[in-house]
């Protein structure tokens, strides 16, 4: 399964990046996936769960940001988004536009981390220390 190896390599890359932040928990991983990357989203989500299980990334959400195909047309000199990926023709003039500018991406855009909260107990203390203004007036 193609998606499983992709998922495994994402888990590996994220685990490595997250290791720079000891104690932090990975909440979400955002991916940029081009329309031509031939990735089946549902399948990748499923494989993500399998691949991340038991790893430091387990439980993190995989957010897939799909990118449309963008081609550059030499005739018009503009970049256009293609509706489908069946024909690589410029939507403006109909010329063949095989100069792919976007659509093959398969990369990690960002990783969301939850920092460990050493201040949590401190914050709770200050909250309980605060006098309740309503009670004072009564
Ligand atoms: Zn054109």
Topology order in helix (H) and strand (E) letters: HEHEEEEEHH
Bound molecules: zinc ion
Approximate shape: elongated
* Overall SS class: alpha+beta
Question: What can you see in these coordinates?
Answer:
With 138 residues, the protein is α+β, with helices and mostly antiparallel strands. The protein has helices spanning 2-18, 41-52, 120-129, 133-137; strands spanning 25-34, 61-67, 70-72, 79-81, 99-102, 106-114. Helix 1 crosses helix 2. Zinc ion (ZN) binds at residues 73, 75-76, 90, 92-93, 95.
Summary keywords:
138 residues, alpha+beta, hypothetical protein PF0899 fold, 2 domains, three-stranded mixed sheet, three-stranded antiparallel sheet, 6 strands
Q: How would you briefly describe this protein structure?
A:
32% of the residues lie in helices and 26% in strands.
List the helices and strands and how they pair.
Elements: H1 2-18, E1 25-34, H2 41-52, E2 61-67, E3 70-72, E4 79-81, E5 99-102, E6 106-114, H3 120-129, H4 133-137
Parallel strand pairs: 1-2
Antiparallel strand pairs: 1-6, 3-4, 3-5
Helix pairs in contact: 1-2
The structure holds zinc ion.
